[in-house]
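Deliverable D2.4 — example input (structure tokens):
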């Protein structure tokens, strides 16, 4: 970067920060559809080129036991005050469709990516994707591309897992654990060894969660994770899905559901849900070769109760994180801002908070974007505790929906004054 270009970039960044500081704080929110007894979960939000919002999520009786689970969506027109009626985005007959993610590619096309669960177990998931150019009309997009995303880890995958196991067994860490925990860890390592040597287990079980990441307008990186392996992987394409190849695996003790952001120096940084033992923190890693290989996974300082989080870079250079900000439960959902690329998180504000306990709600699996006007949009699972809630005509407790929140950086920077109404 030349000196003049650097000065220009610095000036644009400074103006962006100043503009954010001058904004009037606001935060509005609403349920996308009324509370109901059906399981509605794992949403993703995007803004279309015309300024509309699209949200998708999965809906059904429960993906672990039922086959009626499908991907639904809803649209909020630019300037509208209400969301459209729900419509089906994907529905594989007799199979659960779950954990959907969306993005708009540089050609203006809408992508939907999701796993179909073959046997009601996460480790049997098969990744799929759809692409549509016609998605501005009312109702569901008109899909032109319907493909399986074949995740094909090669011999280096098994080598990386074997090396991780060898390090864990020789480091002495196992000897410092209690007998019961040491047995659990040893069993998990043995399972990893068996799965990594099995071609089918290497290729099945990968799932989406957070937004895919477009690098330099040319490379698509789809963050994936496996509940079977309990770690993460990136699916990469440089020709918009004609061919795919995997990154090296990001291996640790339960690091799943990665979300990617890019640093000013060009390197990539990811935060991941902590599915491992306490102390529970968001896991982190970095890549300095465009997502091909990733540094050893470490703990960040950010608490995580074993739930999804998403990180994004704002146009003024700040980073925005949305997550459950405790180690214990999903009753607290917060947004945080960093002005030093995640070294510190100076501003935090809660979108949702219930006092911990048996009657606390669960507000989780968030998705976040910055709109063209600079404001922020989030969607997340909104699940109330089932005690003392109304019932529908069939006697089912109505407790679940997907919620949308619209706010700006100034609202977050204002600090914790109150909680937005539910």
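Example output (designed residues):
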């Amino acid at each position: 970067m030349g000196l003049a270009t650097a000065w220009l970039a610095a000036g644009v960044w400074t103006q962006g920060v100043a503009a954010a500081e001058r904004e009037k704080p606001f935060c509005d929110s609403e349920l996308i559809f009324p509370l109901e007894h059906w399981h509605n979960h794992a949403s993703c939000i995007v803004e279309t080129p015309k300024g509309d919002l699209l949200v998708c999520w999965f809906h059904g009786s429960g993906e672990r036991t039922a086959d009626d689970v499908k991907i639904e969506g809803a649209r909020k027109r630019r300037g509208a005050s209400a969301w459209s009626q729900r419509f089906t985005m994907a529905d594989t007959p007799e199979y659960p469709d779950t954990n959907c993610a969306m993005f708009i590619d540089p050609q203006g096309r809408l992508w939907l990516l999701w796993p179909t669960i073959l046997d009601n177990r996460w480790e049997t998931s098969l990744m799929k994707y759809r692409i549509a150019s016609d998605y501005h009309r009312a109702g569901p997009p008109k899909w032109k591309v319907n493909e399986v995303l074949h995740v094909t880890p090669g011999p280096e995958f098994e080598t990386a897992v074997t090396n991780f196991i060898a390090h864990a067994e020789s480091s002495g860490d196992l000897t410092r654990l209690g007998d019961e925990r040491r047995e659990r860890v040893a069993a998990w390592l043995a399972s990893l060894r068996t799965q990594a040597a099995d071609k089918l287990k290497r290729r099945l079980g990968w799932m989406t969660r957070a937004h895919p990441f477009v690098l330099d307008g040319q490379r698509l990186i789809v963050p994936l994770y496996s509940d079977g392996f309990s770690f993460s992987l990136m699916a990469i394409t440089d020709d918009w899905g004609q061919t795919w190849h995997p990154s090296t695996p990001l291996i640790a003790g339960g690091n799943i559901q990665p979300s990617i952001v890019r640093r000013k120096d060009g390197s990539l940084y990811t935060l991941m849900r902590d599915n491992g033992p306490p102390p529970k923190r968001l896991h982190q890693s970095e890549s300095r070769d465009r997502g091909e290989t990733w540094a050893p996974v470490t703990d960040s300082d950010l608490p995580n109760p074993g739930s999804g989080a998403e990180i994004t870079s704002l146009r003024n250079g700040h980073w925005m994180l949305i997550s459950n900000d405790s180690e214990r439960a999903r009753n607290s959902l917060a947004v945080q801002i960093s002005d030093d690329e995640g070294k510190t998180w100076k501003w935090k504000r809660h979108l949702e908070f219930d006092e911990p306990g048996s009657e606390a709600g669960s507000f989780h699996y968030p998705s976040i974007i910055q709109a063209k006007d600079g404001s922020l949009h989030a969607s997340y699972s909104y699940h109330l505790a089932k005690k003392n809630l109304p019932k529908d005509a069939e006697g089912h407790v109505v407790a679940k929906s997907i919620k949308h929140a619209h706010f700006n950086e100034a609202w977050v920077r204002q600090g914790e004054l109150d909680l937005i109404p539910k």
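The chain has two domains: 24-150+204-413, 151-203.
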